[in-house]
Amino acid sequence: SAARIPNFSGNDEINDLADQFNQMLDQVQRYIEQQKQFVGDVSHELRTPVAVIEGHLNLLNRWGKDDPEVLDESLKAASQEAERMNSLIEEMLQLTRAEQVESKNVQEITDVREVIMGVVDSIQMLHQDFSILSDIEMNADVSVRMTRNHLEQILIILLDNAVKYSTKRKEVHLSADTTPQEIHIVVQDFGMGISPESQQRIFDRFYRVDKARSRERGGNGLGLSIAYRLVKAYGGQLTVDSVEGSGSMFKVTLPTISESIPESTDHEED
Ligand code: ADP
What we know:
By secondary structure, this protein is of the alpha+beta class. Helix content is 51%, strand content 17%. The strands form two sheets. It has a five-stranded mixed beta sheet. Adenosine-5'-diphosphate (ADP) binds next to helix 4 and helix 7.
């Protein structure tokens, strides 16, 4: 590992500088380790779809020319896998972007109630066999300083998961309320739930409780890590409360724009 500056006994100023330098060095090294880990994880995740596509190309090459059934199935399977790869890459980009959000540079003001209603509507449209019930105890003018797109992304990830990991009871509840300082949004499902050990890891990138099951539902294990990083970037919190076999509750807390600040009476959109 890189050379650290040793402490020179006797000179406090130099020792302080050395300490600062060493701390920076540690930070850089931690960052490099994280990047290495990420590249390793990504390569590992891309291996499966590439192997699947290769397998189907092999089948096509051997039997596809004579057997229309093989031709049809392998073409379909390979292009499905390419699509999954596409969504994996798209989600990895979203994760990288989420890590780069600097909330102090964001000026956009977003109406929370309106975004919630829009997202609930679109998830309901996509899953007509579900009841997406919402209970929004919030005035129309409650706002957060974050991009509309990011708030939508967070809610879509949580609602999408709630639907994806539901079992018999096809019902998802969203409730929202506010205090003067913060908004709370809770997404609740009555599905498979998450064990206490897994609850500690679900916000890690690429973590899936059941790889096969998540994969079969199109999951890459990145949704919650994207949501978590976004919420954190805006000074909020994302927590989970779940009981295996009965369901899960995800809670988002975000700081509101204080209504007592006079400058913020004009809600401009960027
Ligand atoms: P994925 O794309 O696999 O859904 P996420 O990062 O969104 O990835 O979630 C990580 C894992 O956490 C999922 O694979 C699943 O095992 C678990 N999980 C997420 N949301 C729920 C939920 N509402 N109920 C049960 N398990 C969940």
